[in-house]
Structures are given as C-alpha cells and as structure tokens.
Amino acid sequence: MRVIIVGAGITGLTCARILAENGYTCEVYEQRDHIGGNCYELKVYGANVHRYGPHIFHTNDADAWSFVNQFSPFTTYVHKVSAKTTMGMIPIPFNLVSAEKLHLDPNGVHADFIVDLLFRDYSEKMWGCAFEDLPPAVTSRVPKIRLNTDCRYFTDEYQGIPTFGYNTLFMGMVDHPNIHLHLNMLPQSWRRELDYDFKVIIYTGSIDDYYGEPATLPYQTLDIVFHPLGHRLPAPVINYCIPMEEEAATRITDYRYFRDSRPPLETNEDSTVISKEYSRRCTGVGDVPYYPLPFNDAKELYAMYESRDPGFNVKFCGRLGCYQYLNMDQAVRQAMDVCADIIG
C-alpha cells in the first residue's frame, strides 16, 4: 500500500516511519533540500546551530518520548530563559527569584504588572498585533507567575536534545526501505503520484498550498542572524521584553549551551555563536512560515479551507496543515494518532 506524505518535518517523518514499519510504502515530498523541517541543524562559523531557531524536545507524553528515543540518544537539557525588561534581567516565567532580583514583594505582584513587564512588548513584536488581540492559546503558553524558585522554562518530565543533533535523529527515522525521499521538489510535484494506487495523502504543508492557490493564510516568519561572539550569554536564551524602538529582535540564543557549538578554531574558551531573531509577516516566496495566526479573520479563513472537499483521502496535520501552534511532542503525538487511524 502506498502513501503520499507531503513535508519532511517532524510530523511527516513520524508518519513515514510508523507507516513504513507497518508495511506501507511512503513517498515523502519536501520542497527544501533537507529533512527535519524547522529543526534542521547546520554549521555556522564552524559551530552547530539550529538553522531555524532553538528547538528543545520537552514532553509529558511518555509514548512520544519513547518514539523519538528509538532513533537517537538524547542528552538531558533543562532549558532556562532570561528576560531583558525595563527593570532589569530576570528569569522567566516570573517566580520568586525574579521578584527577589527586582526587590519586589511577590504577594504584591499582579498579573497586569507581569503582562506589562514581560509579555506585552515581546508578544507585539512576535505576533505583529496588539497583546489584547491575541487568543488565550497564545497568551497562556507561558505561565504568568510561579510561586516558587523553579527557574526552568519547561516543567515537563522529559526534556532533552538529540545527543548527536536533530539531523542524526531524522536520518535515523528515514532509514527504512519503505521510505522514499524526494527533496528539492516543487509545491505540487507530489501530485504525479496520483497516477498510482495509494491509500492516503498525509499533508503537512500549508492547506492553501494544497489547493494550489496563492498563499492567503497569514503566518509569522523569522529573520535569523547568526554572529560569532567572544563571550557567553548569561542564559541560553534571552527574550527582549522591551519596546521595539529599544530592541527590534524578539530574542537572542547562545548555542554554546546546547551541543558542541564552540567555533573549533577559536582560542577563546568562552567563544560561542549566537543568533538574533526578528519576527515579521510572511510576504511571499522564500519566506519560511514558522507560526500560524489562527485568530480573528484568519480563523474564519482556515475554517473555509477545512470545509472544502480535498478530492482525495487526505489527512491534514502538523503546524501548517492544521493551522495550529504545535510543539514538537504535540506534532509527534498527532502523527501517531493519524497513523493509528490509517492502520486501523
């Protein structure tokens, strides 16, 4: 039985591996020249970096964690984020340590204060709209306050980064005779497979692309600039929770905290490679859609696409296919569920 999978990110490759192990022949089509989607790694200034921004696998889903660990060992990595605010640098989410650094009584700190301090400027730069226009699905992703000294960004049971990098993880996933990769493909090139017998199409690209129409659903993209740096940052990631006129970037990442990301020929032991991220709307060809914006008019537009007859047995999934903000573990779980439905 043949399956067409459009997109070789974590969703598409999870589907490919599960179905391949169950006897399906998987034709995987990808527009880029690499697999792994936005988790792809490459060397910049001789250091290993995440090409599309930092990715940490974190989950409470034991099955999703077990699945990815089949293809690569993971190094435990507990992510911590600092915020540069108008009052100084503090850990985020806001906790008792944050309050102490700002000489504040945590019992007197209210949610509105934290929104103005940490979330408003950052979110408006990140999403390109007023904070009040963002849905709870976005504004509730990071807790406003923790009444303890836990400075971890994520509190999930399982947290880590593939020991030998995400590229090795994904190469392990596609290492199966039933998986056939097609890279550097045009957006609609997968349709040539429709002349053959196939059971289902798993589509992880943007749903408007599926219908071969000009991109109409809005997405945020990121312009990411990498720099060598002679000293390490005080935290793996620093969010710029300050107004646009003071700092246009949303965050800065120090890759020295992850895998072996020190430039190999650099004599300074504190040297590293950092990236700065600038968020903006996708405007056309060449922009990578990172984040769907499923609220206001876009939510209604997606509902229109979702209600259309795709013409085939199609499973839309992943961030772009379902127009949802999914973490990596959620993408794996969704793919596992889609495959269980197909196999069942």
Structure description:
Helix content is 26%, strand content 24%. The chain has helices at 10-21, 62-69, 96-101, 111-127, 136-139, 166-174, 207-210, 297-306, 318-321, 328-343, and strands at residues 2-6, 25-29, 41-44, 47-50, 57-59, 74-76, 81-85, 88-92, 158-162, 179-182, 200-203, 219-229, 237-240, 251-254, 272-281, 291-292, 314-316. It is α/β, with parallel strands linked by helices. The chain has 2 domains: 2-77 and 158-217 and 289-343, NAD(P)-binding Rossmann-like Domain (Rossmann fold, 3-Layer(aba) Sandwich), CATH 3.40.50; 81-151 and 219-281, no CATH class. Strand 7 and strand 8 (88-92) form a beta hairpin. It has 10 helices and 17 strands. A 7-stranded mixed beta sheet has the order 8-7-13-14-15-12-16.
Keywords:
17 strands, 2 domains, alpha/beta, 24% strand, Rossmann fold, 344 residues
Layout of helices and strands, plus pairs?
Blueprint (H helix, E strand, L loop, with lengths): L1 E5 L3 H12 L3 E5 L11 E4 L2 E4 L6 E3 L2 H8 L4 E3 L4 E5 L2 E5 L3 H6 L9 H17 L8 H4 L18 E5 L3 H9 L4 E4 L17 E4 L3 H4 L8 E11 L7 E4 L10 E4 L17 E10 L9 E2 L4 H10 L7 E3 L1 H4 L6 H16 L1
Parallel strand pairs: 1-2, 1-11, 2-10, 7-13, 11-17
Antiparallel strand pairs: 3-4, 5-9, 6-9, 7-8, 12-15, 12-16, 13-14, 14-15
Helix pairs in contact: 1-10, 2-10
